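Example 3.2
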Amino acid sequence: MAAVALGAAALAGPLAAQTPADTLIYNLAVTGSGTRLSVEARMIAGEGTSVFLASPPAGAGTSVTAFGASDDRGAPLLVQRTGSGYVIARSRPGPVRFRYQLSFTDSVAAGSTAAGLDSVRLYAVTRSLFVAPDPVLYRKMGHPYPVVRLQFLLPPRWRLVASWDSLGPVLAPRSGDDLLGGAVAAAADYRLYDGSTGGAAFTVAVRGTRAFTDSALVDLVSASLRLGAEAFGAVPVPRVTYISDTGRKGRTSGSLQGTSAVGLLWEPGEMLERARSHDTFHETLHLWFGGAMEAERWWTEGVTDYFAARLYAAWRGDPRELAALCYESLRNYDRIPHRRTTTMTQEAHSLPGGDNTIRLVYRKGMLAGLLLDAAIRRGSHERATLDDVARRLLAAARTHRSKTIPESEIGEAVAEAGGSTAAHEWTRVVTGTEEITEAQVAAALRTVTGVELPPPPPRPANPKTLSKPPSP
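Structure, written as tokens:
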């Protein structure tokens, strides 16, 4: 750990000019032939005699061992293990050093929300890496989060990919949420591509061989950002980082981590066709819905899926792409056993998680986006669309500390944009449980695209069931 200790001292320089505030410095070193991280930190906390730290959550794919703490002179400090982390006791305010070993459950991350480390690569959501102060606790106390600086000590030739700001080799998360809500990756063979569009810069980091070219993925990312900005306003963050790596066979996963990092871990042999392209648009649009604005999951997941399908079809110049994705969603919706007894919000609150192909918040949510968009267009005589509602909600979210828009406010915006026609559709598909039919989807597609888009021929399929039905 000698190199780590020297690194911590070297990081103190960028903080010298800061106004007095709590500060937190990390060094993370890949050790054990690429099987674990050794982490050392130094925290200057000006108040209190106890330092409260939260551990990576259960299920993060990592485990903390050998946690210890000392003062700046090396004298050990008492550490108490709690259910969610550690409490370090000190006799007076001043610097505290703590260190720990971080082991990884998997060598290859199980998905974009997980963590994995082996001798050739690292991918991790950042909440899986850090023992750190809890940002929620700081907000409750009304205290600013410590100024954070960190540095990774990596094997030779490895390149680090992260969404944080940088000061040379030093990384500078903007807040506690930024520290714990992102994703990082590192390997010797990451290929980096930079660009800008939609009012933001972006980086696409690609690793491994693919069934598609790097340029095809970069073009897709750029299109999703550009069309998202055209529909909903400038990209909400100054820079977005996309991390594209090969994941496990049979597992394809994409997600927005925090507000500016998108992980795309696709199984080997994945093609950059409709499904993965639509997924990439979907994850990009989470910058607006799920990042800049929070709402019920049927909006942040389902309606986002509809917007992603429509913008992807616009990029391809083929409305049949939108139709194919909507009819696929309808087929999955038809297999959900509780579709006529449970609203999307009831499902989200009584049964979080699960296979998104048989979840109302995803499948009915996407169809609700289509049907509400069509109803607004009809009710306003084509003077308004669901995009107008989305822009209004995003503007409102900027005035809310939590960025959360309640369902009732969404309903009011829909009714104002599309009148009684849209209000009736809201009651039918959002607050009600009336079945959505193929004819209704076809009519809505005709309204939105201006062309006839009949459903594809039916195909047999075995219905899926949820292990635990939701309680209405």
